[in-house]
Amino acid sequence: MPDTTAAAETAEQTKDEETKAPEPVDDLVTTQHTLTVKRRKLAYTAQTGRIVLRQESKKDGKSEGHQARAEVFLTAYTLDDADPGTRPVTFAFNGGPGSSSIWLHLGVLGPRRVLSGDVDDPAPPPYGLADNPETLLQHSDLVFIDPVSTGYSRVTEGREPQEFSGFQSDVESIAEIIRLWVSRNERWLSPKFLAGESYGTLRAAALAGHLQERYGLYLNGLLLISSVLDMGTLRFHEGNDLPYSLFVPTYAAIAHYHGRHGDRPLDDVLADAEDFAAKDLPWALSRGARLSTEDRAEAVATLASLTGLTESYVDRVNLRIEHVRFFTELLRDEARTVGRMDGRFTTWEPDGGREHMSEDPSVSRIIGAYAAGFNHYVRAELGYENDLPYEILSSEVFQAWSYKEFEGRSVSATGTLSAAMRANPFLKVHVAFGHYDGATPYYASEHVLAQLQIPDELRDNIETAYYPAGHMMYVHEPSRVQQAKDLGKFIKSASNR
Q: What is the reported pLDDT for 2?
């Protein structure tokens, strides 16, 4: 008699294979472009799409091959006819966690840029794009990476997005993408840089160490834009008084911008705020109930004067001004709030009694331009088509993010960056600050840089740049042009070619 059981199993197996999702493959699209920069025509190649991220799988000690885990979206720009041995390459990403690379890509670094407007000249829909003659492509090839679950990057079928929603897993996946691109494009001997913004600076610092230790891939430099290397400087919670002092210079800068310091020069206001934040305020906070009535009154008066808030408010919050509460409170008498990402922006607040503002105008006023610009650009000019929504900012990623590696301590990459610089004394670091950045305040970043555990002779490897703008300082046109020059100069000086 025929073996009906075996036949049924074979049929079932055949059916499973027929219905099984096809193995994912890279879907990169290549296009050619030109850009005129100071009468010089740059011919470059753009490669856009998703590459498959794989990991070797083992079961019972035996290899099951390299299993596809995710499809990671990137856009790479390479200058035509350039020598890969001398031509730098910069890998760029934003932060969040949960942000795509759209901001750096179309804001300052890429060969095309969004016309988003600024505080005094907002752009109306339907927005537009323009060539970016200040692009970093003049000095370096560029690779923009969207971490898993941002942009068009997604996990493969059957995988959980949470596999990538964490500090270490994120570092490992981005490092593998960088290794793959460097290897496939024969760029191991090229000068290599990482450019990160916001949480992307924490990622970049961690990557500098991981790339060295895991792959022996040593970098020439880090471009840290709106830097946060230690979350403890930003997290307002009981028992951590550090942010209450480190944010004061930024509060003072924003108050100055909105006319709360009269005609005093900004530099003078910042000098006073930094001095108070470094000495008197930390001391007053540490005293607690031991602070005398006279000393408390003096601290309240000084802090109120610097921040533009009333003495009554400063006294009620016990000298501890949380940042979102500040953005909501500063212009309450005008029924307006100021932006967190960029304190120059304001918007109407419909609830005059609200403690936390209902929106961040420095994001809501520009995100439409970036969304329209990229969704047009990726299809019409880069030739890449995908029906998935391009996730600019994913709240799901942010909410699911895990810092389990830092349980019981501050989330920080300062130790990793310090070790990377000691092991690679040629590693240079450029740090860019916006005076009106209320998300990653400049004085907090200065504090962290001063704590790096490196010898004095390596401190010259760190350079800083300041701009009269916010978190995305390139929204401000004069800052964008100057920042482009600063970044290009840094790439040239750190390339060792």
A: 55
